[in-house]
Amino acid sequence: xxxxxxxxxxxxxxxxxxxxxxxxxxxxxxxxxxxxxxxxxxxxxxxxxxxxxxxxxxxxxxxxxxxxxxxxxxxxxxxxxxxxxxxxxxxxxxxxxxxxxxxxxxxxxxxxxxxxxxxxxxxxxxxxxxxxxxxxxxxxxxxxxxxxxxxxxxxxxxxxxxxxxxxxxxxxxxxxxxxxxxxxxxxxxxxxxxxxxxxxxxxxxxxxxxxxxxxxxxxxxxxxxxxxxxxxxxxxxxxxxxxxxxxxxxxxxxxxxxxxxxxxxxxxxxxxxxxxxxxxxxxxxxxxxxxxxxxxxxx
Length: 299
Known about the structure:
The protein has about 300 residues and is an alpha/beta fold. The chain has 2 domains: about 150 residues, Rossmann fold, CATH 3.40.50; about 130 residues, Rossmann fold, CATH 3.40.50.1400. About 30% of the residues lie in helices and about 20% in strands. Helix 1 crosses helix 7 and helix 4 crosses helix 5.
């Protein structure tokens, strides 16, 4: 028996913070490739410390629903899961390249395949592009459009910026969009000045956040000038300094994120059958229109 455990931050204050985690877990459970699919949280129940006790399977694939490598993926989660012999060197990571490592959680008698965060997986580039498709309603969006991939950015974790830059660079290499830039909330180049970085009139802005919350629904829209008060909402697209800003909201709410979770587990050795292809088909709105799949970065 094999189980999948998706671990995320959660929130005591924002009830919507855990919604994407539950949504992706349900999507994956429906494929039937795992005997069990569970969720665990830092700020909600079940906690990281207790989640393995909710699993019957002896073999568990743990996938962090986090954007970057850092404090939570490298310290908090391994500690709370009580992974025996946890050693950061096992990941052999440069800040974005952690894949997986296998440990025993002896107190619960389980083998744990601990995976890198979803935010640094190559397939996340596809989710960012899909997010651009969703907000514009165009499954071929690219020509005549620029793309801004937005991260939090912080001096406390340089890997936060690395993940954003990784995907901006990968998408730029496809030449799908006229321009692609990585922008940040708390470091340069700042998203406040979004229109200064693009010559293209239409700019799609995709925040590399797992869930919508204070930053994505309040800070970023106000900082970009979409609205003076987030409570009054904003139009999509919004006219700002001669540009049309198509603000997509958190990438983690995109249904295709379930694909990245499964790909992380598959990289660690999980048997997933055709679940990856199945989820891509099920979450692609263009399939119903007969135009085929088209996230178009990692395919």
